[in-house]
Inverse folding.
């Protein structure tokens, strides 16, 4: 399927190629950097900047290349969108994910070296309580970061106008209106609603948006 889509793309049959790419991406959960780049290019060419930004954001989350971010910033600036500003914490998280295998290997080797060291000094009759506490704290911090901080999500608004409500209900009060293409950090969820943060002239606001109105990047 990928080879067929690539052949169609080379023939500039972009709609047909995109349909195959979308099946691989949404149903089979299969994609490559080249495929996402082509999907973003096709969506940008049709004026669907929200989906173009979505595919580029997914790509950037997998491969935090400054060139990809530069393209995201270019599109965001062109359409005057918020939520795409440089974020050092996000950049570090994406790089940690990208080099996760190397980090896990280095961490495992370090832990084994520390355990061997503690075993040796224990045999010499020296106190190992405080080093053990320090190692335990380090392990706890690592697992917290691995299980929670690496799971940050954000949503790109895919509808023309989306209501930001003060409660996870259609009966809630309207907090603000968010235009298509803007990016919202997700801070929680409740059934079919995502709790998001939205920046306006008078500061940050939190509210709830229906999940059907967002393209999720995680």
């Amino acid at each position: 399927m990928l080879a067929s889509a690539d052949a169609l793309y080379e023939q500039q049959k972009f709609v047909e190629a995109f349909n195959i790419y979308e099946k691989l991406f949404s149903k089979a959960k299969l994609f490559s950097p080249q495929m996402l780049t082509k999907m973003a290019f096709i969506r940008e060419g049709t004026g669907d900047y929200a989906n173009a930004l979505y595919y580029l954001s997914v790509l950037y989350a997998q491969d935090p290349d400054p060139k990809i971010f530069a393209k995201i910033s270019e599109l965001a600036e062109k359409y005057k969108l918020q939520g795409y500003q440089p974020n050092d914490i996000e950049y570090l998280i994406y790089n940690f994910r990208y080099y996760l295998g190397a980090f896990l290997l280095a961490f495992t080797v370090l832990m084994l070296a520390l355990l061997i060291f503690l075993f040796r000094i224990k045999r010499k009759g020296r106190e190992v309580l405080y080093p053990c506490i320090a190692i335990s704290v380090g392990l706890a911090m690592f697992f917290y970061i691995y299980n929670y901080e690496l799971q940050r999500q954000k949503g790109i608004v895919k509808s023309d106008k989306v209501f930001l409500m003060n409660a996870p209900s259609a009966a809630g009060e309207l907090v603000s209106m968010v235009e298509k293409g803007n990016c919202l950090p997700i801070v929680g969820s409740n059934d079919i609603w995502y709790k998001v943060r939205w920046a306006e002239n008078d500061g940050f606001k939190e509210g709830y948006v229906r999940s059907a109105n967002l393209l999720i990047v995680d």
User: Anything to note?
Assistant: The longest helix spans residues 100-123.
